[in-house]
Amino acid sequence: MGRPIIQLPEDMVHTAEVIWALRPDLIVETGIAHGGSLIYYASLFEAMGNGRVIGVDIEIRPHNRAATEAHPMFKRIEMIEGSSAAPEIVAQVRARIQPGEKVLVLLDSNHTKQHVLDELRAYAELVSIGSYLVATDGIMQNVVGAPRSAPDWDWNNPQQAAIAFVAEDSRFVIEEPSWLFNEGVVRERVTYWPKAFVKRIR
Ligand SMILES: C[S@@+](CC[C@H](N)C(=O)[O-])C[C@H]1O[C@@H](n2cnc3c(N)ncnc32)[C@H](O)[C@@H]1O
């Protein structure tokens, strides 16, 4: 809908199905960039007739803010500027959640293991039982040596943060949402988000 999304399209289609199945009242996404993913999730909520989106970014560039605020889907979007794991920013997000709302959290900001682990810990309380914290872009682990990668990506990545988090918090497991339909022999999704879906089970 006119704004760039920095995602593999397959992940966006899969996430649309997760959103339809889960029917969250609120999506919190850390990492806004051009605003395209916020607009995408808001457009799904518009089609579904319910839901709103909160985006958090350490730097919302003026042209991205202006384009997002001017978009027809902005009526379902709110943006907060600041570091996503900072307690005062997490408190601002928490203050916007109404009792009983079903919350889904997508983590797509700074992808170091430590930052994602900090986010997982900080947003864990906000996620509803049955919903997910999604630690995106664990594919970093598999692309060390590729252009614009860093040598430490084999351990310093969101996938390792998710694995460490579920080892310390028994309310969560890594569980890939099932496919709607698969007549083929392929059992693994093409994704940039391996081991990303951290489900709250209690
Ligand atoms: C990969 S982009 C987000 C892409 C967007 N979610 C999408 O799908 O199009 C990462 C964003 O994270 C932001 N960022 C980096 N460190 C951050 C932090 N500590 N807290 C919040 N946002 C951060 C950057 O400013 C950048 O806009």
Q: Describe it for me?
A:
The protein is an alpha/beta fold and 202 residues long. The protein has six helices and seven strands, in the order αβαβαβαβαβαββ. The chain has a seven-stranded mixed β-sheet with strand order 3-2-1-4-5-7-6, with helices on both faces. Helix 5 (113-123) packs across helix 6 (158-168). The mean pLDDT is 97. The protein binds S-adenosylmethionine. S-adenosylmethionine is lined by residues 5-7, 29-34, 36-37, 56-59, 83-84, 108-110, 115.
Averaged pLDDT: 97
Element order: H for helix, E for strand = HEHEHEHEHEHEE
Major sheet: arrangement of strands: 3-2-1-4-5-7-6
Q: Biggest β-sheet, characterized?
A: 7 strands, mixed
First-to-last CA distance: 36 Å
Strand content: 15-25%
Kindly state the percentage of residues in helix.
Answer: 25-40%
What is the tally of helical segments?
6
Class based on secondary structure composition and strand pairing: alpha/beta
**Cofactors and ligands:** S-adenosylmethionine
> C-alpha Rg, in Å?
16 Å
Number of strands: 7
Uncertain spans, ≥5 residues at pLDDT below 50? none
What is the general shape? globular
Which descriptors would you attach to this protein?
alpha/beta; binds S-adenosylmethionine; 202 residues; single chain; 7 strands
